[in-house]
Amino acid sequence: MSVTVANPQYRMATAAQFVGRELGASAWVTVDQDRIDRFADCTGDRQWIHVDADRARAPQSVAMSA
What we know:
By secondary structure, this protein is mainly α. The chain is built from three helices and no strands.
């Protein structure tokens, strides 16, 4: 079910009236490694967890500290 709101006022004060409604739905986009790598290139965010798929796939050891 789709509901159309005439001239919607998207503000925090009116957010509750849009809960459960479809707002500006678009087609699915495939986010593959090539797209992630290109995003990293243009933003300078080359964090390994995003751009090194083999390392990200490997089990991680996590050290806990209090």
